[in-house]
Structure formats: C-alpha cells, structure tokens
Queue: 4 jobs
Job 1
Amino acid sequence: MSDLGSLVEQLRSSRGFAHKRDIGAALGTLVNSLPGGSTDLAQAVAVGDDCAAIPDGDGWLLFAIEGFVDDFVQAMPWFAGWSGVMVNLSDIAAMGGRGVAVVDALWARGGEAGQAVLQGLAAAASAYQVPIVGGHTNHRSDRNGLAVAVLGRARRLLTSFNARPGDRLLMAVDLRGAFEDPHPFWNATAGAPPERLRADLALLPELAEAGLADAAKDISMAGVLGTALMLLECSKVGAEIDLAAIPRPACVGAEVPLLRWLQAFPSYGFLLSVRPAQAGAVAARFAARGLACADIGTVTPGPEVGLHAGAERALLWDLSAETFIAARTEAAHA
C-alpha cells in the first residue's frame, strides 16, 4: 500500500471519524421514532449543520451544544471548561452568527473536582464577552462530565448545504498555537489576547453579511478532512483536495507530521466553500488578521472525495456508496 493509501486507511479508522459517523445512527433513531412514518425533524436548517437555526424576525436564532468525553474532562478540566465556550462559539460563527449567552451542565466528584472546569468556563466567557446565564450543577456524581450550550444570532446564514460544484475549498486556521500534548488539541485560543480572539471570530459573520460566502463549517474533532466530508455530503457534492496545500504549523523547526495535523482539532479553524470570484477576497480578510487561509481544493459534482499528494491520488470516500453522517437521508433535506 502506498503512503497515501495508508494515510487514508488511518483516517477512515480514526476516533474523530468514528465519532462523527455516530451522528448517522442517532439521526436514524430519531427518524424511526417519529409517529406515522414521518421523516420531518422540524429543522429550520437540515441535520448536518454546525448548530440549529430558527428564523427570527430579520435573522436567525442559533443554538449550539457540545458534550465532552469523560477522559478529556478528567485529564484537562480547565481546558475542557474553556473549550466548552470556545467550540460552541466557533459553531455559531461557522453559521454566520455571534454568540449571545452560555449555559452549562457540570457533573463532578465533589465541588473541588469541578472547580477547574468552572474556572475555564468563566475565563472563556470573559475573553469572548459572552455571559454565562445559567446551567445545571451536580457535585455528587461518580465521574466528571461537561456539556455546554450557546445561543447566538445571525443576520445571514453560512451553512453546510450551499457548497456548489466549481467552488474553491478554503481552509482558514490560526497557526499561532501549540499542541496540548499528548492530546490532538491545537491550542491557539487559550492565552491569546481577548480582543484578537473576538475580532478573529467576527470574520465569519462579516463574510456572510458582506455576501462573500454562504457555505462554511467549523473544523471539528474529525479534522479538516472529516469536516470536509460532512460539508460535502450535506451539499451532495464531492471534491478533489490537495494535501500539500493544507496550511500546517511548524513544530520544533519542522512541520507537524501530516497525519497528526489532519486529525487535530485546531481550536480556530474553518472550512469554506466559496465561489471562485470571491475566493481571493475571502482569503485576504483572514490574511489581514494574521490567519492562514489557503485554497486546498475544488468542489466537484460528486460523489467522490479524492486526496492528492503530488501525482498520486487516493479515494478518501465515495459518498454515493457509503454515507458519512447520513445527511442524505429523507430527514436531512436542504
């Protein structure tokens, strides 16, 4: 097997991909549990976007929620609290919105065990200037656990359902960070100047409101390629992606190993599907703030998602043969 083929196999069997594929099973259970054979989940935006969107006056209410696995909360309680706010605000931004308020649910083995989580939550809420307005606390649990939800508003949506054949795939990412070893978390937010964090995040709704983009997704724990699969599946398209074009940080004088970076959660990272005429203007806005933004591929009519390394090509996924998050079911319609 070639190096590229081996990389594809490792990605397909990764924990990040597996977690995202669980969405399909959950969606199937919800659909099959609806009365009368209905497949309508009453979504204002179909299942597969970064958060729910509900029409509201001249814009949209956005609801995002994240739950965190026990081992992460146990190993990194302060960073788990920080991430609870940060990742939800990234999801809100990925849909063209701005955060309004935060709520959390915390389970801990005593008050002291949950203190660091709460301190991380408070630090992020202060840095991003989005208040914590309520939640649920249980200090008598047999384990530490955390879930955080954020309410936001958008004037104009970015969505996973608007990628079109011929679009340019742009990856925007903050390379000014470091890995939280041994975890796959690239931390470019905790410790950064709060004013910079807020202005960097505001780029996404500004792009939406300027009409420069209408299709985007936050790069999640599935990494940039797993995120691409989710976006492309929702839009019923494919893509050809150039691995050499993916922005990658330096690590001890050399680039971070490709496989590690492809499986990383970058803390500030977005994938945008942009009309070719707008791609330069979009990239320039990120570059003006010191953020890396590169054209990493072309959206195709589908259904294949191919990876390129020099002259070599490998198939990452055939979305017509195998769903990723099952966004093509009858319940998930644009």
Job 2
Amino acid sequence: MEVIIQPDPGSGSVLAAQIISNLLKRKPNAVLGLATGNTPLRLYKELIDMYKRGEIDFSRVTTFNLDEYVGLPCDHPASYNYFMYENFFKHVNIPKNQIHIPDGAVEDIPAFCLAYEQAIKDAGGIDLQLLGIGRDGHIGFNEPVSSLSSRTRIKTLMEQTLKDNETFFEREDHIPHHVITMGIGTVMESGSILLLAFGTGKAHSIAQTVEGPLTAMVPASILQLHPHAKIILDKDAATHLSRAAYYQTTYDGKPDWQKF
C-alpha cells in the first residue's frame, strides 16, 4: 500500500487522472473499475478535459462499475447509471457495449451477479479499480462485517450509509435499502487499486484503513494486502495518520517517472 498525500482534492484528482492516463498509454485496451459519489467527480472532469485535448483515448477501454441501487431504473436521477453517463460516459468515447454497470432493476439478482463476475473474467480482469471510502471504512457497498472474500452480490445498507446518501434523494423514504455491489474478493483481484479520499470526514476511516488492523469491521483495511494499491489523500483526510510525514517524504523522494 502506497499513501500519497496531496495539498488539496484538486491536486489529488489531477494525480489520479495522470495515473489512469499513463495506464491507457501503456495499455489502450485497459479494463477500468469505476466508482461513483462526490469523491471521483473532479477526477472524471480531469479525464474528460484530457480527452477533449486529445491527450487520452478511451475507444478501446472497457469499464465495470462497482455498484447500483436495487429497484432504481437506469434513467432515475439518483441511479449510478445516470450518474456515470451524466458525469463521464457521455463526454468521452467509450463504446456503449464496453460499459458495464450493475442493473438494479433486474429480476433475477443472483443470476445477474454471477454473470457480472463472468463478464469481468471474460474481459481479462480489471486492470485498475477506482475506489472511494465510506466514513465507516466501506468500499463499494461492502459494509462493515462484509466477507473479505465476497463476490458481486446483493447487500443491505447500514444506517450510516443511508444517512450519507440522503442528499441524493428527494425524500428519506425513497432511499433504496438494498444494492448490488462488487465483492471485496472481486476488488482485490484487480491488477491495481486507486483509492481517493478527501476531507476531514474521511480521516478516521483512512487511519483505520492504513494503520489499523486488518478487519472486516473496516472493509478497506483489506487493501493492506494488495501489492499495488495507491491511496491518494488531501491533507485533511491525512490528519489522523501517525506516519503522515513519512508517507510524504517517501513520495516526494521518488523520481518523477515512479510517481505515476
């Protein structure tokens, strides 16, 4: 696990975009695992701007999104399908048949989850998985006590997650209580992982993830076992790290080619 502390969310997002850009230059047909929420919005804007400047090409890229609410049609404004098209997909040149997002309206959820796992395998596996992190340390919608070897499946959301998601819905009773999410085992099979966390609200979960014990109570702590996980933080999200100065010195001392 590599911890990279940047001055602010903008700088962190630019760095993340450069890491993805460099991957696509090395492997134009890379498979990207994508995330939703407020955290990656600046990253997606950076990637869109790079595409419009002709610095990056997505035409051979395949994507798999982490999760989706159960019961929401894909055109619902709060669905992650809608989020991805509005904030990224409709602005770049990824062919629609190469975009994969869990279907929250599917009738046979177990069969869909098995098919989603198979589609990832058929694509050759995920080269880079983008993650955010919840205040309780969840990744995707793998809530605390989720199996650390779990696969794509249906999950029930915890009270804190429901509260955090209130802003995306007009009424509290409209928030779905179930989701389809990639499992922790699925995420850990990715070739590399890029987790972004910004703001003091994420500081506690980041400290538990990076410096705490590996435990299902903090699902993101499993990333300690991944050989190629980068954790990009702003200074606020790093405030509870006891070794923040060491992480900063280590990163600053790297040659430029190794920083991306």
Job 3
Amino acid sequence: MANQFPLGDKELCIGILGMTEGNAHPFSWSAMYNGYDKDVMYEWTHELYPSIPDYLGKQPPETFGIPSAHITHVCFTGYEDRAMAENCARASRIPNVCTDPLEMLGHVDAVICATDIGAEHVERCRPFIEAGLPMFIDKPLCDNEEDLKTIVKWHDEGAHFISSSSMRYEKSIEPYQKCHYELGEIRYILSPMAKKWETYGMHAVEAIFDLLGPGFTAVQNGGTYEKNWVHLYHKNGCYVDIPMEYGMTSRGVVVLGNRGSAQLSDGDSYYAFKKQMDNFVHFLRTGEEPTPFSNTVEMAKIIIAGIRSREEGGRMVELSEIHER
C-alpha cells in the first residue's frame, strides 16, 4: 500500500469497472464526471435502463462534471464485454476502453467498481487493492462472511476504499439523518425496495441506517429468494421491515415515532448518485471517509445475516454470529 494517499488537488484519472445484469452504473456515473452524448446514451440505455436517460435528461449541462476528475478508462467483464464498454465510452466520453481490467494499472489514480454483485467484489477489486489504488466499491460491499473478512483485512492493512448506496443521499432522506427530533423516538420504519436482497437490499438498509445509527442486533428473513421480507432489530427497540420483490416500488421510507411520523420519498436519482460520486472524489483528495468504516461493516453484516436467515428457514440471525476478523 505504498502509493501516496490522499491524492490532494491533482488531476484525477479514474477507471470504472462494470457491468452486471440490471445495472448500468458505468454509463450514468461516467456521464456525471465527463458529460455525455445524449443520442448515444439514449440508444444504449433507453430500453433496458430507461431511468438513466430520463434523470440525466432533466439536468442542465452545468450540473455535469467534477472539478479536475475524469473517468478515463472503462472495462466490462462478466455480464457484458468490450463491445458494450465501447458503447459506454462513446456515450460518456471515456477515452480509453480496456479488454482486461489490469490494463488500467499504471494509467489511473483510482478505480470505481460499479458492479452490484457482492460475491464478485473481492475478485474484481483485489488487483487494484494490492496495487495500492484507492477504490469506490458499489453496494453491497460483499454478501458473505469470508469476503467480509478479506475486505476488513485489506482495510486493517491500510487499503483505501469506500462503499455506499446512493439511497444515503436521497434528497428526502438526507435531512432526517441529521435531525428528526420532531418525530420523537423512532419506533418503526418501513423501507420497501425493488429486486433482490443480495443486490438491492443495501439500498433499503443504507436509506435508514443513519436514522437509528449503529446498533443493529439481529436479522430475520421470512421470505424467499424472489420475494424477501426482512425484519431488522436495533438495540434501541426500533423495528425495521424491508419487503422486497421485482416490480415493487423502490421509492419511499415510512418512519413512525412516538411524537410524529414522516413519509420520505422523492424521484431525484441524479442528486443522490452525483453526491455519491462527489463524496468519492472528496475522499480521494482528503482521505476523509464519508461514513465510518465500522458502519459499513455493520451494514454488510445485515446483508449477510438476511441471506443466512432465509437459507436457514427464516431463523433469527444475530449479527454477533457474523465475524469480520
């Protein structure tokens, strides 16, 4: 881990890795750094990922770009290959397309792992972590205990990386993370989410984590792989329910306190994703983590516990059962 960090005010060349099924983050995240070609973006995203040209198209040109930071290299392996990476490069103005991720080494200052299959993150990230490059790892950080131990070991040894869900930065949720006194003591939260627990569960978890803070104790998943119903327990006595399935809305969190309630919902995906990327660049320049790593580990444990509970007949899984070291 000998590379200089933080990176200060230097011009940043950033590589991005992708894609996975149902996830086209390299297209939209790269556009937030580099700007984009509207016609090419529409051509390659409007059918499978219609939300991308929709939320990008609502933004005035001046909202694009992060000062002195650019996505300069892109590589797709796994679900998609070089041909789709070239489409992404044309859409989001990325000058270099790699067939092998290792081609980025020596040419970039940092790497974004923009894939959302947690079981693949150790394999995808290892070459860059071992090379001392700082990284952003998309949610979920991981989805099993052994990979969590590997990732925590990397952090203990001085590797520089962060991971988060964009839901942390939702316009409607963000203010309540800092102040929700008008609600009194929070007694119950409902955080519905689309798709699968393994991939999108972290969206639901991170949306509500800072409303309660660290201290989640147990997870119980009474659902199936296709249709999860996850119940979280917190040391303060608050209960959290996370229902999930394909076709369910992924917008909206209901918070009930002993003095009031709130339904938090908005549709500005661009704001959330852009702030996520802004914070990554701030991390690269200053070394300041946007959220404590211990919180990131606790949220990863929640995902792992939800999988374990479902696979073991819906039993309650204590977070203390899952070891990071």
Job 4
Amino acid sequence: MRSFDLKKRTVIITGASGGFGSELTKLFIKKYGCRVIGIGRSKEKMNALSLSLGCDKNKFKYFLFDVSDKENWHKFAAMLESKGVIPDLLINNAGIMPPFERFDTEDEETAERVMNVNFMSVVYGCKAMLPLLKRSKQGGIVNIASSAAVSPIVGAAVYSASKGAVRNFSLSLSEELENSIYVGVVCPGFSKTDLFRDNGLNEDDFDFISTLGTDKDEIAEEIAEGVSCGKKLIVCGNDSRLMTAMSSVAPVRSNALYSKVMKGSDLNIFKDLK
C-alpha cells in the first residue's frame, strides 16, 4: 500500500455541488491547497459553492454536464488536453438514490437511470480520464460506492447492485493499474446529504439518519485520510464499518436483520416496503 500525496494536486470531483462532493471540494482546497475542477448539473449550486470558498474560490472551476453520457466525458477530456490541464486525481462521487421501494413496483426507467448515473458514469469517467491521469507524476482514481455495496439493503435492490458494481469494478481496476495508477473505492454509510432529496423525508427520517449515520464533513475527512494512506478499500462511518463486519461473518442473516428492522419501522422513508 503506497501513500498518495494530496498536497497541491489538480482534482476532478463529480457531483461537486452538494453532499460529499462539496465537502471534499472544500477540504481539498482549504486543507491541501488543491485546485479542484467540479462537475455537476446545477449552476446555482456550483456558484454557491464557489462563493463559500471565499478568497480560495480562484482554486475552483466547474463544468456542467450529465456524467452518465459518455460523449460528455470525451468532450471534457479533449478540452482539458487542449488547455494542457493534467489532472492528478479523479473522484467519481456523483450518484442518485431513488426512494426506498419494492423492486416489483419500481419502473424500469428508474432502474436504468440509477445504473447509468451510479455505475456507467464511473466507467465512462475512468475510461476518458485514464490517458491524462497516466501523464500525472502521481495519478489516482477514487470511486464512491456505499455500505450497500457490501451489505445490500431491502427497498434498494438496483441501488445496491449499482454500488456493488462500483466496488467490484474499482477493486479489479486497482489490481490492473497497480503499477501506474492508484485506485481506491469508498463505502460510506448513512449521512445527511442530497442523496436523499427525492425520498420525501420528514423530520423523523432525518433524525434517524443523523443518529445512525456520520456527518458528511467527517466522511470527507475519512476519505482524504484513506486516500493519503493509499487504501484500496475505504470504509467510512460507524454504521458502514458495523455492516461490513457483520456481512463478512453472516451475510444472509445480517441482511435479514436489516430488512426486519426497516420493514418494522414507522419511519416515512420505509413506508413503501411493507
């Protein structure tokens, strides 16, 4: 396991406008003096993030495009190359999570969208950026998966599958590129982020997530620390560490336990599981 020096790197972060993406952007710029190129879809949110950086906002640039469209990645890579920009680190953070719902009532379009945004965007980003990353003195890729990649959860079958794909893809890629590019995958647990914006959460739901999960700024710190240490698998948050440990010992029983708890809950977030 080789260390990865984060200081003064050029970092590309997808989904930079909110959640882990915005926290990572602030952390990499403020603490490590990095130059961050953010990718997102909301100009309003990107401008707000830029303003929040204060005197460091000159270290942040952003581009607006859909990361699930591979042509957008090819155009982005060509633009960077034409400007002589060589990125050092790509963080594939963009992702979506539809409301918890039984698979037999979920429409196919939603499932396709989840796979495209959560997994195929990672494939497209890695494919397009690798030639440039290999030209860096120390290139790296970090893909954000989920605790659901290790311990699939009821009501999120396709989401769990998409994050499991990110995890396995990343670990395989890490071995393939071991001598040239650092590749790490992150499995964070619950955190109060924009990932749940489409879930119709009420105050009790957010209290549950806040109690069970870990603050997004703490997750960002854990990610940066894991990358600095050159970890291939970075498990963040106490709930994710517990789920990972339980799943490694008794995967079927632990999943059944999570399912029972979620289905028996009175929380609005899990109402469609019964």
